[in-house]
Task: structure prediction
Amino acid sequence: MNSEPLVRWDWIGAHLGPILDRVGQHLYLAVIAVSIGFAISFGLAALSIRRRRLYPFVTLLATAVYTIPSFAMFAALVVVSGLSIFTAEIPLVVYTFILFVPNIVAGFDAVPQDVLDAADGMGYTSAQRWWQVELPLSVPLVVAGLRLATVSTIGLVTVSAILGDRFGGLGYYILDGYHRHFPTEILVGGLLSIGLAVLADLGFVLLRRLLTPWAAARAAAR
Amino acid sequence: MDIVAVTAQWLADPAHWQGPNGIPLRLGEHVALSVVSLILAAVVAMPLGLWIGHTGRFSWLVVSSANAWRALPSFAVIGLLVPFTTLLDPNLGFILYPTLAAMIVLAGPPILVNSYEGVAGVDRDLVEAARGMGMSERQILFGLEMPVALPVLAAGIRSAAVQVIATATLGATFGFGGLGRYIVLGDANRDNGELFGGVVLVATLALTTLAVFVLIERRLASPGLAARTAG
Result:
């Protein structure tokens, strides 16, 4: 191994197809988890806003779940639900709750009461007020939650490699490279997964700019 | 086969509570290496965060990268360290150093960010009042800003501790010891009792750590400030 260079470019060149497939699988696993996690978290956040007394329990439960090491959760689920897509997705989904719920709740809390009163005064129905006033104004914090959850999920997808070849996305290369004492593979898997997380984060920053044009206008007016 | 029964059976077997692969030793390994990593990370990250928070210098760096550390997945960090640590030592560099180094590296950011945010978030009126009373910058940092920021500092150490325990568990995939070994061995031996025994031990350790820190954080809130928010 010592005589070999750290990065074998010829190996990378010969495996571009499979590497791209793994990138695709990585994104696939992450997108499903973030989407389902977001939907459930939105429900939990809505519940927490209506029933304030429940909010501490929701966050406590989400924190406790997040505290359980991912390796243990993946391994335990293999025995319970076998080697299915659920085994990979359930941990990824439940880990997003603590990143989403507080941000969504804070996002809606941040809408000023004056603005809500003004909307009521202008004759908005509660549904209209929600869609046209509360939701758009909560965007900055909701997107902050999306950034956190996406970046963290993309990282956690690598751990699902312990479930076997059919999972793990780029994590497959980290584990395979380790077992085969082949640094090139580890570097490809590790660096690309970090790269994906950074790209996704930048994507959300762009999305927030598009969804909140007034923020940019205000900054420019200053 | 009933998972609960085999797990209870495995955990109750006295043979699993002794020897080099016994639960006390694995637990000790897990806790000792986690504590060492946490202390090493805190020694570097906390003074740095406090200094940045107090002076405001380089704060843009902390603010802009506050969440970037989450992009560093422990699985990738351990893996990425392997090629380099094996150059140092082909044996320990393959099974011990990568995980240990990842534990230290990943414990740093949450401590740094919270130390910064805790101090930077102290009411500026309080700081100005302290300055007006003739307190030195040192006295302001240690006598005012740190006590007020204590719950936030503790929360940073809590995140780091949780992260470190999880990373140590994951390290078992990369030859690391600790409680994660049982999960790896249980999987390899197709022994569900061992695998779930490991899961129960790891989860208990993580949740106990969380509970201890939450209790400490409650105690640490400055009584004056706690009374003010309560009233």
Observations:
- The mean pLDDT of chain A is 91.
- Chain A touches chain B through 44 residues (CB under 8 Å).
